Fold:
Amino acid sequence: MIERTLVLVKPDGVQRLLVGRILTRYEERGLKLVALKLVSVDRRLADRHYAVHRERPFFRGLVEFITSGPVVALVLEGPDAVAVVRAMNGATRPAQADPGTIRGDLALETAQNLVHASDSPETAEAELALWFRPEELVDYAREVDRWVLAPAEA
Ligand code: CMP
Structure:
């Protein structure tokens, strides 16, 4: 099933100069970049993005962190993109993230865990709409897809 998912490289990823290396991992896997931008996140967007965590004790810290510097927001597309990207990111808590994942290789703390990705296709749909206007999602063909995707999906 071809899916789309929202990814954020959080302020720690931007400040640690890891944007290129993180995007390279998704690109090399074969995922298709559908949208990409650098965003200064305001309070309203942060509140809406983390609305499901509103009652958690760490909510305030989450909002402070995501608004503390620019983030890179992107949309990736591919077969089972939601699960694929979450597996590539690794467990939310970096101590539990497997080596070879972004967090398992590059992060140590739960708050500073470098990336966010949608946790289900339904969440992805809502998060895409929150972070991107429809015209920011770019429709284009990739020659490489005949080598990356099964014939029915290319
Ligand atoms: P993210 O995928 O952005 O979605 C929610 C975030 O909450 C998660 O990544 C973590 O960065 C953060 N988070 C989860 N649990 C905790 C916690 N106990 N303390 C601080 N931050 C947390």
Notes: The beta strands are 2-9, 32-39, 71-79, 115-117.
